[in-house]
Amino acid sequence: GAVVSQHPSWVICKSGTSVKIECRSLDFQATTMFWYRQFPKQSLMLMATSNEGSKATYEQGVEKDKFLINHASLTLSTLTVTSAHPEDSSFYICSASKASPRDTQYFGPGTRLTVL
Amino acid sequence: AQSVTQLGSHVSVSEGALVLLRCNYSSSVPPYLFWYVQYPNQGLQLLLKYTSAATLVKGINGFEAEFKKSETSFHLTKPSAHMSDAAEYFCAVLGGTSYGKLTFGQGTILTVHP
Hints:
The complex is a heterodimer of chains A (116) and B (114).
Chain A: E1 4-7, E2 10-13, E3 19-25, E4 32-38, E5 44-51, E6 57-58, E7 67-73, E8 76-81, E9 90-97, E10 105-107, E11 111-115
Parallel strand pairs in A: 2-11
Antiparallel strand pairs in A: 1-3, 3-8, 4-5, 4-9, 5-6, 7-8, 9-10, 9-11
Chain B: E1 3-7, E2 10-14, E3 19-26, E4 32-38, E5 44-50, E6 56-58, E7 64-68, E8 73-78, E9 87-94, E10 102-104, E11 108-113
Parallel strand pairs in B: 2-11
Antiparallel strand pairs in B: 1-3, 3-8, 4-5, 4-9, 6-7, 7-8, 9-10, 9-11
């Protein structure tokens, strides 16, 4: 068990539009979900941490008004990139942990966002 | 604060040879340490983790890692490389904060030659 899915796997959008990415834990309830961003040939950088039913905790330098996170249930978190610009193009990966935030994180397959 | 340094952004081995990927960490609290593997355009798959139990940790696909506190290291090894091991490997440390922030190293790309 411990499967995490993301949808869509890739998306291309025009500059100025908003894009929503879904992250689902398929076979477990996720106490905490995490959103990471990975630029080409670079490591993962944590953007924010979300717990079901509460506001997300954003890392320093991440614009909370631009990257909206909703964690509506124990199996679903969404990341909305608002008014996307080309510099937002990246690989977005979510992860989920079961029992507590310090539990092992299980990663989704990622979403490739390209903003034209 | 936590940090991770992976020595060598690229490692190349022959099929059947020993794989050694180096990871050193810095942590202000007893760390939890992880190795993940990432194939192109995919998410991360957990290889193994250290959570303060046995210092030698065995993972999937024949990989293992040894936690050495005196050296602040958590190197990943595999006795015999397989072509399917070619991927990017990330070492990560989980710090002492309650919300469980993972700090990743820069990654090591492993190439396996036939």
